[in-house]
Fold these 2 entries.
Entry 1:
Amino acid sequence: DVVMTQTPLSLSVTPGQPASISCKSSQSLLHRDGKTCLYWYLQKPGQSPQLLIYGVSSRFSGVPDRFSGSGSGTDFTLTISRVEAEDVGVYYCMQGIHLPRTFGPGTKVDIK
Amino acid sequence: EVQLLESGGGLVQPGGSLRLSCAASGFTFSSYEMNWVRQAPDKGLEWLSYISSSGTTTYYADSVKGRFTISRDNAKNSLYLQMTSLRAEDTALYYCAREIPRLDAFDVWGHGTMVTVSS
């Protein structure tokens, strides 16, 4: 199985400051058709996960532009340019190219 | 409004069975691939199973292969997960999730249904 690792596992951020989460996969997530199957989800407290980013860097509908994704191959990053109070929760990366699909362990983000 | 609503969870003894349902509304269910994902208490997300839009193709995580069966009834806009030989480690909140065609991302999630396996 493809192992997804995330660092850090927890992050405390001052509102208005940037935050970055790293996600690494044990195998390349580049599909032969050229797309890279890496996604980011946010699970806010008490809620179901919600899609933030697909295809490494495409923001899903309604996702604020302070969220951005980057990376390639096996190394990926989610960046929040200016953290807001509503961004608290657990962030998961997920790979969709290999079966079984696997999630990272999650990064818990809270506000200082 | 696009919505997924899971049901069927509950308390079951080890070795028992349970059938989860996921009712879809607000979109053309038969056009979408679907998945089940679970989350054990205070743990992360675990993908369990996938089913194609027609229902002809299915995939499973090794942890549930041979014990769980995913299915769908497009006429009833419903997704199912038949769970047998349940174990304590199957205790979790079970989510159904819609998959965006050709993007493979899960864009709509239900609120989940809790399954507790305990004697």
Entry 2:
Amino acid sequence: AQKITQTQPGMFVQEKEAVTLDCTYDTSDPSYGLFWYKQPSSGEMIFLIYQGSYDQQNATEGRYSLNFQKARKSANLVISASQLGDSAMYFCAMREGMDSSYKLIFGSGTRLLVRP
Amino acid sequence: DGGITQSPKYLFRKEGQNVTLSCEQNLNHDAMYWYRQDPGQGLRLIYYSQIVNDFQKGDIAEGYSVSREKKESFPLTVTSAQKNPTAFYLCASTPLAGGSTDTQYFGPGTRLTVL
């Protein structure tokens, strides 16, 4: 079974509007971390935001926020006030806490296109 | 500037040849990782190392080899045994400081094409 699922292969959003990218995860480990990365066409992976399983509040970093719903095992990324430079692939990833290797498990990604 | 460098950016190889991809970091990070990315897909873990002179196989280690002789360096060799090596290869590192927020930081990647 897939541990990280991103069901939206592609998304469009109008510039200056908000967009939500979906991510669901599967783990039996009570301690885990969830990450979002952005991959522009250049290929580098840029870390955006982190949410720990025990964090009481949803994580925010500038225009990025993470809508963490633990019971539903979802960790959706919200980008507010979209910009043309936000066009990229976005990956959700999970690290399971009991695994001391700090390995990340990645979803298949969502391609976001921001329209002017 | 601190960061992770990968070289070369583009690499072409003939079938049957081994090739080594370089990954260097000056972040003083303990752990390093190699991932493979195929078009339109997520990243899959090839090998990782948490300490010098020690490394473990990831999910798709067959046809690859690594070494970790120095903390800063984690080269990946794609051997002729790898049946479909054309892909984008990403190297990452993380400090293993014990904090739950330890994040993996990535290099710019190497695009390998087998001719």
